Amino acid sequence: MNEQPRRRDTRLFPRPLDIANGRVDMTHGGGGRAMAQLVSEIFGQAFDNEFLSQGNDMAVMPPADGRLVMSTDGYVISPLFFPGGDIGSLAVHGTINDVAMSGATPLYLSASFIIEEGLPLADLRRIVLSMADASRAAGVPIVTGDTKVVERGKADGVFISTAGVGVLADGLEIGGDRIQEGDAILVSGSIGDHGIAILSKRENLDFETAIESDSAPLHRMIRAMVEAEPEIHCLRDPTRGGLAATLNELANQSGVGLVLEEEALPIKPAVRGACELLGIDPLGVANEGKLLAFCPKDKAEALLAVMQAAPFGSDAAIIGHVVADPLKLVRLETSFGSERVVEWLNGEQLPRIC
Amino acid sequence: MKYATEFRDGKLARKIAAAIDAECTPDRSYTFMEFCGGHTHTIARYGLEEMLPKSIRLVHGPGCPVCVLPVGRVDSAIELARDHGVILCSYGDMMRVPGSHRMSLLRAKAAGADIRMVWSTLDALKIARENPDREVAFLAIGFETTTPPTAMALKIAKAERLTNFSIFCNHVLTPAAMRAILDGESLPLQGIIGPGHVSAVIGIEPYQEFADRGQAIVVAGFEPLDLLQAILMLTRQVNEGRPRVENAYVRALPAVGNPKAREVIAETLQLRGAFEWRGLGRLPDSALRVADDYADFDAELKFQLPYRAVPDPKSCACADVVRGLKRPEQCPLFGRTCTPDEPIGSCMVSSEGGCAAHWLYGRHRNKAAA
Ligand code: SF4
C-alpha cells in the first residue's frame, strides 16, 4: 500500500484491535461498536478511496460512456493462502477477468465477506491488504462492501463475494456463441498452474519446484487485444474444470468442433510432472490468470504478438483451430500421433491410486 | 518430466506398430487381455487400438480396483462412516463408486458422514493421531501395488499403539483374478499383458502357471510405447508357439519383485478363505484380510461389519465388462443412463475402468463412425 493509512479515531474506539492475537467473534458482525471498529480499522483503512469514504451503504459513481457490463462471483477457496496468491487477490482478479472477457474495461468492484467466527484478525487483515493491493495494481477500486460473521463451523475461514462493473465500447461483440469455423484458438499462457498450486498446498505435496498460482488480472491484456484486433470472436477464462470444461462449453454454445494440438499446449514442466504423478490431466486443471481467445485464422499471428507483449501474456500460444462438427466435439491431436476426444471432466479430478 | 515423454514418441510408436503389423500372420487372429486398468486407460487415451492391425483384438481385464469391488463392500464402507461415527479415509477413486440405493461415499459425505479423501495411508494415520477421541478407519482397496502402504500403516499403528485406528481391508490378488478369467467362460485368449507395478511387488514368477496353461505373458509398464512393445512380444510368442513369461518393464523391474514389501505384507495381512469380486464371483484365496496378530486394527472385527452380497443394478453389464466378455459400448446403459457424471456401474467411475476410459477419450465414437 502506498497511501498513509487513516488515523484511528481514539474517541470512538479507545483500544486498537488486537490484530496480532485477536480473532473474529460474533460481536464483529453484530452491528455494534465492535463491528464498526473492524470495518474501519481493517477494511476502511485498506480499501480507502473516494467512493468508500462517502460512508454510505452504496456508492454513487459518475456516468459511464458505453454499455454497462456486470458480473459477480463467490470465492470459497481452501486453503485461504496458497503459493502465488490468496483468497483476497483471487476475488479481485477473478471478477475483473469475468467483466473483461466481454471486452469491457472494468471500473468498480464490490466486496462482501462472510467470516467464520474464530478467524484470526491477522489472517483477515492479510487477506484484506492483499485485496487492496490487487485492486490498486489493477486500477479498479472496491467502492462498496459488506461484512457478516457466522458461527464457527458455518463457513470455512472466510468466503468472499465480489461483483464488478465495467463499460463496453460500441462495436465490440465478443461472446461464447460467436466462434466460427476457421477461427484460431489462442491461450494466453501455461495451463494448470492454479489448480496444481492449490492441490499441492492442500495435500502437502512438496514438489521440488514450487508451483505458483497464476492468479492475475487480464483486463490490460484484453484492452490491448481488442484495440489491435476488434474482430475477436470470443474470450473466456478457463477457470474451474480447466480448458476441457471451457472448450466443451464453448463448442456447444457456438455449435462447432474444436481441434487442439497437444504439442502446442504451453504447460510448465513442474505442472506436467505433478500431473503425471497425480494421474490427472492438465487440460482439466483450473487456471485463474489465463484466457482463451478465438479470432479469424489470418489475424491470429498478429493477435498472438499483442498477447505476448502484454502483461501476463509472454507464454501465449496458438493451440488449435475451429472446425465444422455436428457432434460439437473437442478433439486433441496427441504428440503421440493419435487423436482423442477431450471430455468434460466431472467435478474435481480425483487422483488415481495405481 | 522428460523421462515420461521419451516413452510417448509418436514416430517410434509407428515403427513398433509397423513391426507388429509385419509380425501378424494375415489369416490368424490374436486376442490379448490387458489385465490392468492402468493399461486400459493408456490404450484409450493414446488410441492404441487404432494403430494396431485388425487381426489383433485387445480385451479389458479386471485390473481396476474399484471396478471389481462388489456393491456389498461399498455398502459396508458407507455404513462404517454413517452408522458408526467413524472418520473414514479413502482414496479419491472410491468416492463416487455407487453402492446400493444410488448411495456413494461422496453422497454419504454430503449427508453428513465424516469421510476424508487421502492420498496415502500416512495421511490416515495422521488423522488418527490428531483425533484421539474419534475412531479413524482407512478403506484399503487395490491389487498388490497398493498393499504395501496398507501393511506399513498396520505396522506403524501397532508400534505407536494407536487404539483409534483400523483398516477396512479389501486388497485383492492379481494371479487369483487371472486364474478365474482363464477358468471361466472361454474367451479365446492367447496372451495377457501383466501390470508392471504389480510385478514390482510380486515379481514375474507367479505368472508361470499361466504360461504353463498356454498363455503368452508379457509384463509391461504404463506408457504407450511400453504397451506396443508388449503387444509385439506377445504376437511373436504366439507365432513361435512358445508361450512364456517375459518382462518388457525392465527399466523398473527386478524379476523377483520386492521381497521386503512381501515380508511386511505377510506379517500384517493374511489370505481370506474367499472374497466376492464383482463379475468374477466368490473366489477362494483371492484377497487379503488383516492378520490375526493385528486383529485390533481390523475394522471388520472392530465394528462387526457383516458382509452382505448385493446384486448389481439391473441391466448393468459391469460383470461382463471386467471379464472382457463385453465391450463397454455393448452395455445397454453405456452413455445413456450411465456416464461418469452419474455412474451406475463401477466401471464408469475411475478412469481406469473400461467404461470410463472409453467414454472419457471418446473411443466409442470412433467405433460408431467406423
Ligand atoms: S456402462 Fe455403466 S453399467 Fe454398463 S457396464 Fe459400464 S459401468 Fe457398468
Automatic annotation (TrEMBL), chain A:
Cited InterPro entries: HypE, PurM-like_C_dom, PurM-like_C_sf, PurM-like_N, PurM-like_N_sf
Q: SUPFAM superfamilies under this entry?
A: PurM C-terminal domain-like, PurM N-terminal domain-like
Q: Which domain of life is it from?
A: Bacteria
Span of domain PurM-like N-terminal:
55-167
Q: Which GO terms describe its biological process?
A: protein maturation
The PurM-like C-terminal domain, residue ranges: 180-326
Instruction: Give the protein family.
Output: Belongs to the HypE family.
Alphabetized PANTHER family for the sequence: CARBAMOYL DEHYDRATASE HYPE, HYDROGENASE ISOENZYMES FORMATION PROTEIN HYPE
The name of this protein is Hydrogenase expression/formation protein HypE
What is the originating organism of this protein?
Answer: Breoghania corrubedonensis
TrEMBL record, chain B:
This protein's UniProt keywords? Iron, Metal-binding
User: Would I find Metal-binding among this entry's keywords?
Assistant: yes
Question: Which family does the similarity line name?
Answer: Belongs to the HypD family.
Q: Name one GO biological process term.
A: protein maturation
Q: What is a GO molecular function of this protein?
A: 4 iron, 4 sulfur cluster binding
Query: What domain of life does the native source organism fall in?
Result: Bacteria
Keyword presence, Cell wall biogenesis/degradation: no
Q: Which InterPro entries match?
A: Hyd_form_HypD, HypD_1, HypD_2_sf
Protein's name in the database: Hydrogenase maturation factor
